[in-house]
Write a structure and sequence with these properties.
Layout lengths: L5 E7 L3 H8 L7 E6 L4 H10 L3 E5 L6 H9 L6 E5 L3 E3 L3 H11 L5 E4 L7 E2 L7 E5 L18 H11 L4 E4 L4 E3 L10 H24 L1 H22 L4 H18 L12
Parallel strand pairs: 1-2, 1-4, 2-3, 6-9
Antiparallel strand pairs: 4-8, 5-10, 6-8, 7-9
Helix pairs in contact: 6-7, 6-8, 7-8
């Protein structure tokens, strides 16, 4: 089967080992665009030298998952794209089964992998680690909301798709394995953990405000605010690292409430 009408986009941030494992599971005839959220020319050269089907774009700075994906999507010339996390592994027939799905289902916006035992069915949302996009369906919708740095950009995209009455499917025949919460290399675990906590709270408030209004968003985030404040005060006296995590949660909530952009970036100094 001809796979030339699909481009895979992988946005990563210092995910070298996991990215290489992911690439090893992708058919060499499929075009791949890697968007690296840094300015590492050595990394770009290594990837492009070792994988003839891969083009690596350097974002120059850490732009986040939504904006990184959009950079890749703007370069796609095919009718279909697969948004893929670097900490995923493709089953050997995953792409084949996507094209088999295309033979039967022409009208769709997004399809994602499903758990074994379920039928192909329409759903409201899909997890963002693997999203097959029918790009012609996004002309009036646009792609990812770049206000999100990470978290909930996938749910936001699906919600906008559904508002336009476009179809989202889950397909159990498409198997893509996702480790989860491990798209970066282990050496920066704590630094990324701080960033995750900040952005999870920022994104949660922003998403709910965007789709349901300020009052709903405040009500939704209030238990998180109380929990983060209590845990910050408790851990402050005997576990500084944990207290810093909850301080980042508080900061994410406050910045989102004040309407500030998702500015926080992990420091790798």
């Amino acid at each position: 089967m001809n796979f030339t009408d699909l481009t895979i986009i992988i946005t990563c941030f210092q995910s070298d080992n996991k990215l290489k494992s992911c690439l090893s599971t992708i058919d060499k005839n499929i075009k791949v665009i890697v968007v690296e959220n840094s300015n590492r020319n050595k990394f770009k050269n290594q990837i492009e030298q070792n994988y003839n089907n891969v083009r690596c774009l350097l974002a120059k700075e850490n732009l986040g998952y939504a904006k990184g994906n959009n950079i890749g999507l703007k370069e796609v010339k095919t009718n279909y794209a697969l948004i893929l996390n670097p900490d995923t592994l493709l089953d050997k027939e995953a792409i084949l089964n996507f094209f088999k799905f295309l033979e039967k289902t022409k009208e769709f916006a997004i399809v994602g992998p499903g758990k074994q035992g379920t039928e192909i069915s329409q759903v409201e949302y899909l997890k963002g680690y693997a999203l097959f996009l029918n790009l012609s369906e996004f002309n009036e919708i646009g792609y990812f909301d770049e206000n999100f740095f990470m978290y909930l950009e996938d749910i936001d995209l699906c919600k906008r798709v559904r508002k336009k009455n476009k179809k989202i499917f889950i397909n159990p025949n498409i198997k893509i394995y996702h480790k989860g919460a491990s798209s970066h290399d282990e050496k920066i675990n704590y630094t990324v953990e701080l960033s995750r906590n900040w952005h999870w709270m920022w994104s949660k408030f922003y998403y709910n405000k965007k789709h349901f209004g300020i009052v709903f968003s405040v009500i939704k985030i209030f238990p998180n605010l109380l929990s983060a404040l209590f845990k910050y005060l408790i851990f402050y006296f005997f576990n500084k690292r944990k207290s810093e995590i909850y301080l980042k949660r508080l900061s994410g909530i406050l910045n989102s409430f004040l309407g500030k952009k998702s500015w926080y970036r992990p420091s790798l100094d």
